[in-house]
Design goal:
Strand content: 25-35%
Number of helices: 6
Shape: flat
Largest sheet: 12 strands, mixed
Oligomer: single chain
Helix content: 10-25%
Structural class: alpha/beta
Strand order of the largest sheet: 8-11-14-17-20-25-28-30-33-36-38-39
């Protein structure tokens, strides 16, 4: 499908600077956009990437546009939010597949005691257990397993081969991606008489509305009470949430994050990739941990911690800068040691001289 720069600008309520009749037939990233493509600049930090950009049209804000020299070969679309505008334009050049047709496959396995709301899709090979309750408008893709007693709200999407263990609860509009396992037993054992004895995991998992769980993520059930994922929280692929964790609202965890048992978070907590959190740690609202950080104690509200073990950002940077100076400091210490040795030798030589010899030497 082709558009003109002008028609795209109208779609996003933007202002055209340059040729509004230029034909655009693709959308691409800055580095790969050609003369027939539209791209966007997220913020000032990305302006340098425009130096080699060949795009026919660029979506950007007024501040960035004012600092760019006019170029007759490129049209500008000036908007308040370039990212949102690009996301509005992108579907014009990509095929967006709709939801699967409503209906239940004859190859699905559904308990006679389960309840399904209206306008659901249940794919072949899906298995829904006893007394499960599925809300209206849900998409249950092929190979999904929904255990006995599970509760799903409205418009929930569970992608292929995800597993919900018994009594898992999902709020409205929750998305569970392929291969995720929700409600497996927590990793709880007692060491008795030389062997590990399993502690029964009799809690549940509650995932509140608008949360999204990435592919192959795992969220364990609580030992007694529920493991909780707050409303709007987004969990990336391959994340591990252990038993009895309680996550606040609108958290964002990147891939390979791991939370040990009984961790709690406030709202709007952000964790970079491969962050590890010790058991029973509290991450207060608005705090952030940089990638590969290892957290061993509570983080106060709004603070940014990095490193292993994780400490406040400024403190960790001072430590890193100090470590970079170690070779220089080592050379300085070696020089000082040699100087001290020389001085000590001179002192010993002076101690061995008589007063008359010292007067002559002076």
């Amino acid at each position: 499908m082709t558009h003109t720069v002008g028609s795209l600008a109208t779609l996003v309520q933007g202002e055209v600077r340059g040729d509004s009749d230029r034909v655009i037939c693709n959308a691409a990233a800055i580095e790969s956009a050609g003369p027939d493509a539209v791209t966007f600049v997220l913020d000032e930090s990305h302006v340098s990437r425009l130096q080699s950009c060949q795009a026919g049209a660029i979506i950007l804000n007024a501040k960035i546009a004012a600092g760019i020299a006019s170029n007759s070969s490129t049209s500008l679309i000036v908007v308040n939010d370039p990212h949102a505008a690009f996301q509005r334009i992108l579907p014009q050049f990509r095929k967006v597949r709709g939801r699967p047709a409503r209906g239940i496959s004859p190859h699905a396995h559904i308990s006679p005691t389960a309840t399904l709301g209206e306008n659901c899709y249940v794919g072949p090979g899906a298995c829904i257990g006893d007394e499960a309750v599925i809300g209206a408008g849900c998409d249950i893709y092929p190979g999904v397993v929904i255990g006995a007693g599970c509760r799903l709200g409205q418009d929930v999407i569970v992608y292929p081969n995800a597993v919900l263990y018994d009594d898992t609860s999902l709020g409205d509009r929750v998305i569970i991606h392929s291969g995720a396992v929700i409600g497996a037993d927590g990793f709880g054992y007692r060491f008795t008489e030389g062997r590990f004895i399993k502690i029964p995991q009799l809690g549940t998992v509650e995932i509140h509305e608008d949360a999204e769980i990435g592919a192959c993520a795992t969220i364990d059930r609580g030992a007694i009470g529920p493991t909780i994922v707050g409303a709007g929280t987004k969990i990336d692929n391959l994340v591990m949430i252990a038993h009895n964790c309680e996550l606040g609202k609108h958290n964002v965890f990147a891939s390979q994050v791991g939370l040990a048992g009984s961790c709690t978070t406030g709202d709007y907590v952000r964790l970079g990739g491969q962050v590890g959190i010790k058991d029973h740690v509290r991450l207060n609202s608005g705090c952030m941990v940089g990638a590969k950080g290892g957290v061993h104690k509570d983080i106060p509200e709004g603070e940014i911690w990095i490193g292993y073990p994780a400490t406040p950002e400024a403190e960790q940077k001072r430590l890193v800068f100090s470590l970079k100076r170690v070779p220089e400091m080592r050379d300085q210490v070696r020089t000082m040691a040699n100087q001290i040795a020389t001085l000590m030798k001179q002192v010993e030589e002076l101690r061995g001289q008589s007063p008359e010899e010292l007067r002559k030497a002076g």
